C-alpha cells in the first residue's frame, strides 16, 4: 500500500498507473460505525482501497476476528489479491 505520492510505489513495485489507485492506503473500521464502531485506534486498520471496497460489498460482513483470520489465510496461501 502507499500513501502520499504514488510515483515511488509505482517505480519500486513495477506496477502500472492504473493499478496504483487500487493499492492506495485507506482506513478501515473493523466494526462499522453504523454498527456502533468507534473512530478509535483499536477499531481502525490500514487497508488498500480494493480490500476496503470488497469487504463492504459482501451481503453479510464478516465480524472483525473472522475477517482477520480470512486475511491471514489468504496471505499464508500467497493468494492475496488473486483474481
What keywords describe this structure?
single chain, 83 residues, alpha+beta, two-stranded antiparallel ribbon, 3 helices, 2 strands, 35% helix, globular
Write up what this structure looks like.
With 83 residues, this protein is of the alpha+beta class. The protein has one domain (7-77). Helices cover 35% and strands 12% of the residues. The chain contains three helices and two strands. It has helices at 7-13, 49-56, 64-77, and strands spanning 25-29, 44-48. Strands 1-2 form a two-stranded antiparallel sheet. The longest helix is centred in the last third of the chain and has 14 residues, at 64-77. It is globular, with a radius of gyration of 14 Å. The two termini are 18 Å apart.
Order of helices and strands: HEEHH
What share of residues is helical?
Answer: 25-40%
Low-confidence parts: none
Task: Give the distance, in angstroms, between the N- and C-terminal Cα atoms.
Answer: 18 Å
Note the beta-strand portion: 5-15%
For the secondary structure, the number of strands is 2
Average per-residue pLDDT, rounded, comes to 85
Radius of gyration: 14 Å
Structural class: alpha+beta
The general outline is globular
Counting H and I runs of at least 4 residues, what is the number of helices? 3
Q: In what order do the strands lie side by side in the largest sheet?
A: 1-2
Quaternary structure type: single chain
Report the sheet with the most strands, covering strand number, pairing sense and barrel closure: 2 strands, antiparallel
Number of structurally distinct domains: 1
